[in-house]
Amino acid sequence: MKVTAVSPANIAFIKYWGRADNKLFIPRNNNISMTMSGCKTVTTVELGDYGRDLIEVKFFGKDYEKLERKTIKQENLYDQVERIRDMSKDKRYVRIKSENNFPADAGIASSASSFSALTAALLVVYGLKEKFFDKKELSKEIRLCGSSSAVRSVYGGFVEMIAGKGHEDTFAKQIADEKYWDLVDIVAVLDPEKKLFSSSDGHLLADTSPYFETRIVEMQDRIKRCREAILEKNIHKLGPIIEEDTISMHMIMMTSRPPLFYWSHGTVRIIQDLYKWRKEDNLNAYFSIDAGSNVHVICEKKDAKEVRKRLKKNEFVKWTIYNEPCQGVKIINKHLF
Fold first, then answer.
1. CA-CA distance, 132 to 119, in Å (whole number)?
2. What is the tens place of the pLDDT at every residue in 235-292?
3. 244 vs 118: CA distance, rounded Å
4. pTM of the entire structure?
5. CA angle centred on 334, ends 329 and 337, rounded to 5°
6. What's the gap between Cα 324 and its chain centre?
């Protein structure tokens, strides 16, 4: 039995940093995102009598490598396999191959696409199809893999993760599908290498910032306004909200103990350029930055060609990745092995 899933990454317009429950991976706040057509993970899972689970991953620009239980993220992957196997009552082990078409651990949500693709393929290969086809249930299963961001890759388009009090009321729901709005995310890749401080570790430091509770309070209105801006297809309203939340989250990072600094010279340069383009050229493009130095530039499709051309002229930008809203995680027939 062999199953392959493909899942997009997603860019959070309203982000989360810090968890209410580290075992169930429940974030402190609701978060909202858009799926990314140009950043995907493909994962093939096969059942067999291997004697143990075998996981191989091909990161962007590299060869396949075997994953062991050496990091928190790797532990989470193996734990997810064991949990779903136990749920299915099928004792067979799995062989897994997974590959990204974009840099991992660099602030482009590789965990979101990889964890959602893995969980989807595992549920189907172990005969738990009802949990795959029930998107709400699927989002809850994906979260237990170790990434709240991955929950948002269940649906296509624009998605909100509801941060509840426990497992049953923490899930994803769709705000609008991938055909609703011609929005574009152009990722300006400044540094494709693995970041020095992981998001998993960073979440544990969030509440050491003296401003963390202030962020949680003041962002509640921003969540509401973000949802409204998407439904109104209003880039003039959405753009400033995205930037506000990005700055707010990075201020928590920078004021935690120890402080975390993800921005680079190139990051700041793009921020300054975007301000200038909006003021002088009426080019409506806005920045979003996850836990890394790379910048997601959000604009409407009609402006994407000009924005991408300008980004490519930036001395700090190595290349760009073009993304439109796309379908969420799905099963495909083309396998990796």
1. 9
2. 999 999 999 999 999 999 999 999 999 999 999 999 999 999 999 999 999 999 999 9
3. 33
4. 0.96
5. 110
6. 14
